[in-house]
Design a protein that fits this description.
heterodimer; A: TIM Barrel; 8-stranded parallel sheet; 10% strand; B: 786 residues; Aldehyde Dehydrogenase, Chain A, domain 1; Aldehyde Dehydrogenase, Chain A, domain 2; globular
């Protein structure tokens, strides 16, 4: 199968998508009890998780100072002493990317020096309701400033109205604007309410050329959880079966503990396979997750529970 | 430096063993062989017969099991019998405190029990920890509640109950049996399965901690021989059995007491039906929970996958992908989906079934990975190229083996689903509520799961249709199974009429059989003579034979396949009462002359019959099901469904009233009945059929076969298309023989001792008993949410 960037909008596929909430909940609640990783395996999984993090700051008060901290933590996510005790080299581990607003891209490029991808949120983040031309221009401006990845937000209203054509055209035009730059389509799952909507929106975005589908902006009341993630992963699997194209997945918002990130990795490994547990196909949008992982690693190497203040913040 | 950590870019699952130190040392400290738990104490077995207990995941011996002898069983039963005197008189509240204590103790020791169960049975720790043991605690809580709510403290207990449980859910089955039994004041003698007795022995220790009065719970270990001593013990008033259909039938056939109550929870080959509009990924997960739960060693396992033809390819592809992801191995590992098969003999059986199916041309598929070889492991297996006539589609495998068939339409799905001798459970997957709720009543099974599978809760009834057994466990249904409901006895005999009967000069009567709404001459061409109470010849009555039974059953099955509304049935019964009322003189005279009671008594029985018709007419739309509330977002509908074709063999007691009571209750519940009246009083029944015609009773719903007393019993009780049968007799030998002969298709049998039975009683319990006997409960689980 030759893999294309765009696929035609297949509305009958979209409309015939069935999701059963109770069954989805049963799967996620039992899955986390069916699999676990312990000891050195858990350490390996947590290290892997670090490489998947889109280390994020998306606040109205973000300044150069904040972003400088963020980028340095992204480049050196684990305390040297811990790395040493784990038998790893200093530069062996980095996060997947940093994720910021448009105005900080340039600052990031200076600090990061091409050692990491920079992702920018775009297209009227978080609501996605500014003018269409503004939103498109935002994409090209960010790329010009040095963004390697663009996290776009979709118009949730189109989903609620089942207006798949409009949703498809818009996302497609964003991808056309981004060109070779990867785009992650943020569904805003909290606004879509039902898992059926989440599934359908996932399919339309993939048809329209999204390289990743992402759960949420982190600004809605419901963000990534195992249920909406399971549904999106299943749509990615169906899309892959039908087209041969591997679409990435990015859960974002609310994943702040080592324990919960392991659950997400298990979910991806079980539903899509270990080949998907890889920064090219899986990112985790998070800010405070990293420090919790670091604490667990500290516990593994020292045998003691860590004081948070001992570990550098991002 | 750790290789696993260094290689963090390529993660994989590592070992995640559950700690078993404490449990291993408990097993080590067990008496070798174990003691039985009798009268509150652990006592040495009187027999030297022993068996090995193995850990299925290593296939190595871990302990030695005592096989209880007759002497041990006698000791246990007599302890239980003695304990029953006090236990049944305790206030319900006092009993509920003991059940509560057991529930708490189970929760407090839940991990220990989970580990023990996994070591003994081979099932994954995930299942014992997350499913079995929480449900055990839930069962004791729920039944502590049943006891607590019974504030009038009436003692309806049966007495000593013998309970024989299987090895697939050792402690859960123990809880299903013991909790309702003791909650209602019964005492128990329980035998765990020979492969899996350890958790029961640990439970006995908890009984001591809970200070359960001595003798209320007795646990003895052993094999089939021990089971036989229990089932044949004369002081055991009820047998509750869970196990294979084969053994269940044997227990019924070898029973020597016709008054012994029984519940049988037996085998299955349950359909898992996937319609094209289902959430297919979720349905695939459902299949995993249906057939790879507990290594497929589940009586209600969804072992027959029925997929709509339009999605077959897609679904099987998804399923195979999913099967590749299953992990088989050490059941104490927390990341294992499928553990070990319980015993070498069971593994051998699975192997032989699979080999035979392959020879038959069915196509086997197994995941690419291989199972560990150091224990009793078997990989998840999928058979395609299967048709309903394939051996593998019919036989209960009790292993992780799924067979797949396709259907084209909903009605075809139903007919394939029902194409089995079993009827325990079914799973229906569709996002169309109309479709799912249409199929649920059509599948003949005791439990239906819509868009779900293998859900259990103490508040819901569980049990089968057809050869999957009878009786329910759990919910209000299960409570009934442990209560004694004595039938009312008449206090005074009715006076005999002294005057000689007079022969009439009227035109000769020609009674016929009434089959499928038509009056028919008997196939044999023979008749028997009917006399009045003073031996005056009245007329000849047709003597129905085997072929008449055949024709009648066919007509009745046809009738019952067309559903009627309960309102419709209510109207017909009322109308029948109206029409019968006009014939008061005829019927009273006939009644009086046939059995020689006074005109006054005859008129009284006639009036009672009219009232009874009104009662059952009223109940046709009031004997309703209920809604259970298990702890899920959803409902469980406990629907009362008709049995199907029910034969009623009557005697000459209260001939009109018994005829009307059986016919009325059967009809009200929606059954098609075949009435065989007492020989002497056959004319009352034949006199009735004209009224049935006039009253719009649909053809085949009520059929009348007259015959010499008891001459059709065997033909009826063995007929495999009759779903239920009632036999009213005073003769214990006849009753016993009769009950034993019903096992061909395990028909629902009601065969009470009818000596002095007061048919004229208006007790609600008595009248409702006929409705309960006319129905079976189907629990339909409906999780919902969008």
């Amino acid at each position: 199968m030759t893999k294309k960037i765009f696929y035609n909008l297949d509305t009958s596929w979209v409309n015939n998508t069935q999701i059963n909430l109770s069954a989805v909940e049963r799967r996620t609640s039992t899955l986390t009890k069916r699999r676990t990783v312990k000891k050195e395996f858990q350490v390996a999984w947590l290290l892997k998780a670090i490489t998947l993090i889109d280390l994020t700051t998306l606040s109205g008060d973000d300044t150069f100072g904040k972003v400088e901290r963020l980028c340095n933590k992204a480049l050196n996510p684990i305390d040297d002493y811990i790395l040493h005790d784990l038998g790893l080299d200093q530069n062996e581990i980095r996060v997947g990317a940093v994720c910021v607003y448009h105005h900080l891209i340039k600052d990031c490029t200076k600090i990061i020096q091409n050692k990491l991808p920079i992702a920018a949120v775009s297209t009227g983040f978080p609501a996605g309701l500014s003018s269409y031309t503004t939103r498109k221009k935002e994409i090209s401006d960010s790329i010009k400033d040095g963004a390697d990845e663009i996290d776009i937000v979709i118009n949730r209203g189109y989903v609620l109205q089942n207006n798949w054509k409009k949703l498809y055209d818009e996302v497609r035009s964003f991808k056309e604007t981004a060109g070779k730059t990867k785009i992650k389509a943020i569904l805003g799952v909290g606004d879509l309410e039902t898992l059926r909507n989440v599934a359908k929106a996932s399919l339309v975005c993939m048809m329209a050329g999204a390289d990743f589908i992402k759960t949420s902006t982190g600004k809605e009341s419901i963000n990534a959880n195992l249920n909406n993630s399971l549904v999106m992963l299943r749509m990615i699997r169906d899309f892959y079966t039908k087209t041969g194209k591997k679409i990435g997945f990015k859960p974002a918002g609310g994943i702040s503990t080592a324990k919960s990130v392991l659950e997400f990795l298990i979910l991806v490994a079980e539903e899509l396979g270990f080949e998907w547990v890889n920064p090219k196909l899986l990112r985790i949008g998070a800010s405070s997750l990293l420090i919790d992982i670091e604490r667990q690693l500290y516990h593994y190497t020292s045998g003691r529970y860590a004081n948070k203040e001992k570990l550098a913040i991002g | 430096m750790d290789k696993v950590i260094k290689n963090f870019q390529n993660i994989s699952y590592g070992p995640a063993p559950e700690d078993s130190k404490e449990v291993n040392s408990w097993i080590k400290n067990l008496k070798n062989p174990n003691n039985h738990f009798i009268n509150g104490k652990f006592v040495k077995s009187s027999s030297s017969k022993k068996l090995n207990i193995i850990n299925p995941s290593t296939n190595k011996k871990i302990a030695t099991l005592s096989v209880a002898s007759k002497k041990d069983v006698n000791a246990a039963v007599s302890a239980a019998k003695k304990a029953h005197v006090k236990w049944s008189k305790l206030s319900s509240f006092d009993r509920s405190k003991y059940l509560y204590a057991l529930a708490r103790l189970i929760q407090k020791n839940s991990r220990f029990i989970s580990v023990l169960e996994t070591i003994d049975n081979g099932k994954p720790i995930r299942e014992t920890r997350d499913i079995d043991i929480p449900l055990v605690a839930r069962h004791f809580y729920y039944h502590a509640g049943w006891s607590a709510r019974n504030t009038n403290n009436s003692d309806n207990s049966i007495g000593v109950v013998g309970q024989i449980i299987p090895w697939n859910f050792p402690l859960l089955m123990l809880a299903w049996k013991i909790a309702p039994a003791i909650a209602l004041g019964n005492t128990v003698v329980l035998k765990p399965a020979e492969y899996t007795s350890l958790s029961a022995l640990y439970f006995a220790e908890l009984c001591q901690k809970a200070k359960i009065p001595q003798g209320v719970i007795n646990i003895i270990t052993g094999d089939g021989s021990t089971g036989q001593h229990i089932t044949s013990h004369k002081d055991i008033k009820k047998i509750a059995f869970t196990g294979s259909t084969e053994v269940g039938k044997k227990i019924i056939q070898t029973n020597t007491n016709p008054d012994k109550k029984m519940t049988m929870e037996l085998g299955g080959k349950s359909p898992f039906i996937v319609f094209e509009d289902a959430d297919l990924d979720s349905a695939v997960e459902g299949v995993v929970d249906a057939i790879w739960f507990n290594q497929g060693q589940v009586c209600c396992a969804g072992s027959r996958l029925l997929v709509q033809e339009s999605i077959e390819k897609k679904f099987i592809q998804k399923l195979k992908k999913r099967m590749e992801k299953l992990r088989v191995g050490d059941p104490l590992d927390k990341s294992i989906d499928i553990g070990a098969i319980v015993a070498p003999v069971q593994l051998k059986k699975i192997n032989s079934f699979v080999n035979k199916a392959q020879k038959d041309g069915n196509k086997l598929w197994q995941p690419s990975w291989s199972c560990p070889t150091n224990g009793l492991f078997y990989p998840p297996s999928l058979f395609t190229n299967v048709t309903p006539s394939s051996f593998i589609a019919q036989v209960e495998i009790f292993g992780p083996v799924l067979t797949t068939m396709t259907f084209r339409t909903p009605s075809e799905a139903v007919s394939i689903a029902n194409n089995t001798r079993f009827g325990l459970a079914a799973s229906i997957w569709s996002e169309n509520i109309n479709l799912a709720l249409d199929i649920a009543p059509k599948v003949k099974a005791g439990v239906i799961w819509i868009n779900s599978t293998n859900l259990f809760d103490a508040s819901c009834g569980f049990g089968g249709y057809k050869e999957s057994g009878f009786g329910r466990e759990g919910g209000s249904e299960g409570i009934r199974a442990y209560s004694k409901l004595p039938l009312p006895l008449s206090k005074a005999k009715r006076g005999k009429k002294s005057s000689k009967g007079q022969s009439s000069n009227s035109i000769d009567r020609t009674p016929k059989l009434y089959i499928g709404g038509k009056q028919k001459r008997p196939d044999s061409g023979y008749s028997f003579s009917s006399y009045d109470a003073h031996n005056n010849f009245i007329c000849d009555v047709p003597n129905a034979n085997r072929k008449d039974v055949r024709d009648t059953v066919e007509a009745a099955s046809k009738a019952v396949s067309k559903s009627s509304t309960n309102f419709n049935r209510a109207q017909i019964l009322f109308y029948l009462a109206e029409n019968l009322q006009n014939r008061k003189t005829t019927f009273s005279n006939l009644l009086s002359s046939l059995i020689g009671i006074s005109q006054k008594d005859a008129k009284k029985e006639f009036d009672q019959s009219i009232e009874r018709l009104f009662y059952y007419g009223a109940m046709a739309d009031k004997f309703e099901g209920s809604i259970h509330n298990p702890p899920i977002r959803g409902l469980t509908l406990a629907v009362k469904e008709p049995i199907g074709v029910v034969a009623n063999i009557l005697n000459d007691d209260y001939p009109l009233l018994s005829l009307i009571t059986t016919l009325g209750s059967n009809f009200a519940a929606g059954n098609a009945s075949i009435i065989v009246p007492g020989q002497k009083t056959s004319l009352l029944a034949t006199e009735l059929y004209q009224l049935l015609e006039t009253s719009d009773v649909p053809a085949g719903y009520i059929n009348i076969l007259t015959t010499k007393q008891n001459s059709l019993n065997k033909i009826l009780s063995e007929h495999e298309n009759i779903d239920g049968i009632w036999f009213f007799s005073e003769n214990n030998n006849e009753r016993l023989k009769f009950i034993q002969s019903t096992t061909s298709n395990l028909k629902r049998t009601w065969c009470p001792q009818s000596k002095n039975l007061d048919w004229s009683s208006k007790e609600e319990d008595f009248l409702e008993e006929f409705l309960y006997q006319s129905t079976q409960v189907k629990n339909i689980w409906i999780p919902y949410g969008e």
